[in-house]
Amino acid sequence: MLLEEIARLDPDKIRTLFDTGGEYRRAISGGDYVEDFHADLRRARESGPVHEGCVEEALGLPRPEYARRWTEPAFSAFDYATVNAVFRDSETFDSAILRGTFATFGPNILGMDGAEHARHRAVVQPSFGRAAMRWWTDRWIAGITGSLLARVEGRGRAELNLDFCALLPLLTITGSFGVRMAEALRLREVIERMIGADVAREDKLAASAAAADLLLPLIADRRGNPRDDLISRLVRERVRDADGTLRAVTDEEVLAFARLILTAGSGTTWRQLGITLWALLNDPAQLDAVRRDRSLVRAAIEESLRWEVTDPTFFRRATRDTSLGGVRIPAGSRVALCLTAANHDPARWERPDAFDVFRPLRPHLSFAGGPHVCLGMHLARAEMTVALNAILDRLPNLRWDPDVPRPVLMGLQMRGPDRLPVVFG
User: Fold this and answer.
1) Sign of CA dihedral 18, 104, 190, 4
2) pTM surpassing 0.90?
3) What residues have CB less than 8 Å from 45, skipping those under 6 apart?
4) DSSP characters for 360-382?
């Protein structure tokens, strides 16, 4: 049944929604940025840990369209110590700068700080902790992975970006909501409009309303007819208000969580899984080592996260006058934290620009850090672990398709491979 439902998904819609190389995605990702990405980041980091201006400006590019509306001063940080320190000092550097970016989501934890953030995060954290991963894997990840691979394993070739990487996290999240498979792509489409840098505010509000139209009936149903899914878990949780009162989570709060989870879960894991496969396919010796020794699957995933994080920049706001790396930061300034540059800091990693699955594991910053460390990091790791093991099991002798041009990684933001054309067998 699952395989049949997946087969009915519109391939043209999938291609449009997950087109890394398309004009729309390039417009919001800072350009193609295929070549010299790490060389430029290295030059910026070596010339000083903190620069005035956004990341693009520190790399010698014009200020991007999305940053031209900023009225506050902007600075960017490039080394591990500085970026890590900002993440862990939420009193001096808060997340208020994100409230406007995600205003159409409703009350959500990205723009909250301190006790408010802790109270609301506690509502959803149990469903995304390490202990919940068996539930996610058994209920959704394993079955969806198997069905997606069943569609391609008999062909001897696939475009894994669209055939697999894009669909696994989307169908996992929408499945956990109880959204019908036929509506999964529609929900992804409206979420894309909600976060689009070139989408007018009124269109974002319309997309937010469309997401509510799809999700509120599910929320109402689960209040009266709970099931073993994520929406049912969320509606039975309680949130503690500032005065200590414990109350039920509102429909609007559940809806805000759902919008946020879908945005993060169906975008970042798609591209990061693609990055992992791209890196391994470009180094057949390491791919073969991971195939033969599955204890290296974890290492391959962590190394891909360190080496090429799909969302290279996070933002914080300075709550008071301070300094970073010897640079004065006025209160109210926007601070861009370049995770990729921090993850390539030679003060922390030897040969940081090399992808090496044999590298000793050390904590990286690809899931941010401090109180706002990524809520879905364990789910992303679980999806990529199940996916990579299954691909190695079911697609033997996996290699690039020799009849198709070799794909590239692209984008300064929302980075990922433009295609993943492979042959196997």
Assistant:
1) positive
2) yes
3) 78, 79, 341, 344, 345
4) PP---STT--GGG--TTHHHHHH
